Amino acid sequence: MSCIVLQLGQCGNQVGQRVFDTLIEDNLTHSNATKLTINNRSSIDDYIRHSLDRFFIQYDNKLIARALAIDTELKVIEQLMDEKAQAKRHWQYEKKCVFEGRLGSGNNWACGYRNGSLAEESILNKLRWQLEHADRVDTILPILSLAGGTGSGLGAYIVECVRDELPRSFLLTTIVVPYTSGEVVVQNYNSLLTLSHLYHSTDALLVFENDILQQYAKKLVSCSGVDRPTTIHDMNNILTRHLCSFLQPIAKKNQSICEINYLLEQLLPHSFYKLLTLRCVPQLSDQAMDFSTYKWSSLVKTLSQMYINNSYLDEGLNWSLKPFQTRTKSLANLFLSRSYDKEDIGNDLNQYFNHSNFYSSFLSSANYYTSLSYRDKSYLNYEKYLSFISNCQTPVSSLDRIVNKSWQLFGQKAYLHHYMKYDIDEQAFLNGFVQIEQVIKSYNQL
Asked: Among 169, 197, 271, 349, which residue has the least CB neighbours within 10 Å?
């Protein structure tokens, strides 16, 4: 089954392009060629076929991304569609599936939402073109930032339209939370309104935070031995490496490939709890990869301590904290392991993640987590790679910060006139506060 990516706004388009680059890179990479045999060569071919079928339309020896590239400014779209840039890739975008505006959204959620209503029919026609070139659509994957105007406002509107158009397809929306220090003066307003709308229309929200991505990027750059500042490119590489470890084919115990909707079913036991986080190990720079080796037990132990510390990073952890001191609780967890190594990680997961303190009290031990693996191909250049997707309390602190900062502005009625120009009144903000405060309360009660 197919997955269609909706690249919304500048962030969505930059990340979306890196997603397809990373998918192709993984399909072409075999970290240890000495472990290739006739049997797993066949399995690898199956893996690549599933990946290409899922994310690309294949005809005339071309790979066309199953994607819509949408922005209300020309700059990013022009970069995506540049002929020289496209010629360097193993894949390309379909011109019929690109929407470019001229006026922008001015970092204003209300303006973006209005632009979404004006562009609705054109964008849905482009989506229908993609649907006509897919046997069956498994998942729609919108990617957007919460801070600006196009990704947040237009993105929220288009996701609502897609939900109406495809009520039975899973909508997994990848959101990027803005820096705490601020990118845009009204970013918290934009974030609040986007979250409240997406929470109604999407099935799951996969949360990434710019603050965490930058910390992660700084760590990898410092470990590389190269004296340079971190860039957006570094952060996007980390985000897409994590995301693609979830999107690429993974197998059940009977070796059959799982569809993405099967993975989401394991992570969404209740329709109101939609916040997903993604932690991955090892966290290595490219330069360190060739000189590092890991056991599954050490990777699982590290993930366990990251979870106890409520951290996305494997450095700066307080290793003295015990499971009963865990700083987060979850109601669904999924482990995806990728390697040529046939060793099972079940015993390690049982040792480090079979603690009732980690989970909501209404979960039985049989439902603590699900583990899936792919043992005939490594991921990118990693000898072993372990992804941990959790429906847990970790993103709540970011939501709480957004709500508190929005209340501070709203209490002074600051900047509200920019939204009222586009018929977004105070009641719309109040509805957003109620919605997200209820989400925060529900997760805190796990």
From this structure: 271
